[in-house]
Specification:
There is one protein chain. With 259 residues, this protein is of the alpha/beta class. It has 2 domains: 64 residues, no CATH class; 182 residues, Rossmann fold (3-Layer(aba) Sandwich). It has 10 helices and 7 strands. Strands 3-2-1-4-5-7-6 form a 7-stranded mixed sheet. A hairpin with a 4-residue loop joins strand 6 and strand 7.
Length: 259
């Protein structure tokens, strides 16, 4: 896809879907778009945009495709064990009351349900809230519906966790008791305002798709949304360069504390 076509496609996507691709890495997005057009079996983007103007279901499928969703319960188990053993105990010690937690870019909900499982296992008698947000309406619908999830999605759950927190056979659904602990909400990380005062923000494997400038904006917004001493939990490959410029301090792989 050449620069002129990409510019036209970005404009059309902004008009049709209210998604601004300026914030995404160009070469990566070009490959995704080229692949999608081939799948559509239409020869040009002009014809494809005419299709989505006339077909709401196709428009929804395209929107969902552009918002990348790859996740599973307890993805990177060692990092989640650090949340259990180190991060949450430290946050409780410095918390003024209920813990305020945000799963930002929650995709199909498994990250938020992972948080709910952790909280039930470590702090069932204490007060906390979990906000889970995403731009992808299809993913949010699946999250609110508690699934369905595949065997791969739940592979990191222990046998005891499977028995207590998901249905007994495939396709799997998260327990209704977990869903009641979570508020799911549509939210655009780069355009919409953030709430403040969070103890823990989990945003994993989301910003890797953004440009360097957009990453900087997002990390500053996350820092502003954390209370002093609050923690930002990111993906294993999402290293924040010189976190001090955002008022953050690294303490191991994937974790940054607001100073």
């Amino acid at each position: 896809m050449d620069a002129e076509v990409y510019s036209q496609v970005k404009t059309s996507i902004r008009r049709a879907l209210n998604i601004d691709l300026e914030n995404y890495k160009e070469e990566q997005m070009k490959r995704r778009l080229d692949s999608w057009l081939v799948r559509s079996r239409l020869p040009t983007w002009k014809e494809y945009f005419a299709r989505i103007d006339a077909d709401a279901d196709e428009r929804a499928r395209f929107r969902n495709y552009l918002t990348i969703n790859v996740t599973e319960f307890f993805r990177d188990p060692n990092r989640w064990e650090q949340v259990r053993a180190e991060v949450l105990p430290a946050l409780w010690k410095t918390s003024a009351g209920a813990l305020k937690i945000w799963s930002a870019g929650c995709s199909t909900g498994v990250e938020a349900y992972t948080l709910a499982i952790l909280m039930e296992e470590t702090a069932a008698l204490r007060r906390y809230s979990i906000l889970a947000t995403d731009l992808d309406r299809g993913a949010l619908h699946k999250a609110r519906s508690r699934g369905p999830y595949s065997g791969d999605d739940i592979r990191n759950l222990s046998q005891a966790q499977r028995q207590q927190y998901v249905t007994s056979s495939a396709p799997y659904f998260a327990a209704e008791s977990l869903q009641k602990r979570i508020q799911f909400k549509e939210h655009d990380l780069l355009k919409d305002p953030f709430n403040e005062g969070f103890d823990l923000i989990v945003c994993r494997n989301v910003v890797i798709y953004f440009t360097a400038a957009s990453k900087d904006v997002l990390y500053q917004k996350f820092s502003n949304a954390l209370r002093p001493g609050g923690v930002l939990f990111v993906g294993g490959t999402e290293i924040i360069s010189t976190p001090a410029r955002f008022g953050l301090q690294s303490f191991g792989i994937s974790f940054y504390k607001k100073v």
